[in-house]
Amino acid sequence: MTTLLTAPVLDLTLTPSPLAMVWNEPGRPHQLIASPDVHLAPGDALVEIEFATVCGSDVHTVRGDRPAPTPLVLGHEQVGRVVAVGDGAVRADGSPLSVGDRVVWSLAVSCGACDRCSRGIPQKCRSLAKYGHERITRGWELTGGFATHVHVRAGTPIVLVSEEMPAAVAAAASCATATAVAAIDAASITNDLDGALVLITGGGMVGLSAAALAVEAGADVIVSDPDPSRRAFARRLGAIAADPTTAPGAPEHLDEVLAVRARRGLNEVLVAIEASGAPAALQTVISRIGVGGTVVLVGSVSPGPSVAIDPESMVRGLVTLTGVHNYTLSQLRRAVEFLERSWGEMPLADLVGETYPLSELDRAIEDAASGRHVRVGVVPSVG
Fold it and tell me: 23-52: per-residue pLDDT in tens?
């Protein structure tokens, strides 16, 4: 008779208790809860949060723009330190995960075995679970980054980050930066970015991260955004800025900016990345894409109006239109690698404006919704 041996669950009772901010419905403030008992299954880990940032999707959820199961702990952009590990917990590269590791992790955990995982799109796993998006359940209460700790489940890609990288830079890796890498990957399938003219609409965290990646790859990058501070930041990253609200003929009007690039021999936009979700911006990227170009849609992550597309122009122009949502393990790892080599040369830490204690999360989300900052930070302090 064969006896099957299974690794035990690690039961932890922490003092002080881990805390989390729980969201229930639009218009209702977050509620602070304690979760003193944590049960780590084999492969799980408990990570103490160092720094988190408020993503646009957090704002959309709180405003009621998108459905969400409640109660839940929002937040999926964060960096932290491992304080406990279940049996067999590993990093993304397969090496053992250790207490004391400074890490970021994927915003989602997939099964690795379904048809979608097998096709190389684990971010669309049949049984996907997403940090900061799931209803709290018994045994998995610490599910999001707006907390003092996160219970990271087995199978979640976990990537080490250096001690030197600023926390405000590292936190974005698990959403905005990795998503930007995915967008750049989608664009690069049909066009080499080196020397290409790239148009990015939307100067939020994903758009500016994609601009930084494209600039590093050797592209000539135009960032179009109505906010002058976002356009100024794009210039700091090495991009050219365009103002979609200015009158035709003005120096920052997109047509004028494109005309200047044309005089330099860059006659067509070969890559257009739409990172704002605005219908007008979507029309812009489709109308400005050149022959053989690729349009990557990444900003439309909440319900909005339909946009008309002329199929004949796309067919005759050999245009590729693709959507990107979330990312793969490889893209998360390359996001961290990009941040590691770039944070000292690019002003990436400046993308985060105000920082709030966890107890003032509602203020932080309100500030993030105002658009005053590209990102707003949250630190696990409740005093």
Answer: 999 999 999 999 999 999 999 999 999 999
Helices 228-236 and 205-216: crossing angle in degrees, nearest 10, is 30
- Confidence check: pLDDT of 154 > 60: yes
Query: In this structure, are strands 31-34 and 240-242 parallel, antiparallel, or unpaired?
Result: unpaired
Chain position carrying tokens 């990058």: 221
What 8-state DSSP symbol labels residue 27? T
Asked if residues 353 and 373 have their Cβ atoms less than 8 Å apart, the reply is: yes
φ/ψ (deg, to 5) at 9: -75, 135
Beta strands 320-323 and 289-297, pairing class? parallel
When the candidates are 3.30.2350.10, 3.90.180.10, 3.40.50.720, 3.40.50.300, the CATH number that belongs to 10-27+51-175+328-379 is 3.90.180.10
Give the CA dihedral 220, 225, 228, 233, nearest 10 degrees: -40
CA gap 286, 189 in Å, rounded: 18
The whole-angstrom distance between residue 173's C-alpha and the CA centroid of its chain comes to 7
Architecture of domain 177-323: 3-Layer(aba) Sandwich (3.40)
**Closest among 113, 148, 155 to 130, alpha carbons compared:** 155
Condensed to tens digits (0 to 9), the pLDDT of residues 92-126 reads 999 999 999 999 999 999 999 999 999 999 999 99
Query: 């955990």: which residue's tokens?
Result: 109
Instruction: Please state the pTM of the whole predicted model.
Output: 0.94
168-209 pLDDT, tens per residue?
Answer: 999 999 999 999 999 999 999 999 999 999 999 999 999 999
The runs of H, that is alpha helices, within 289-378 are 311-316, 329-342, 361-370
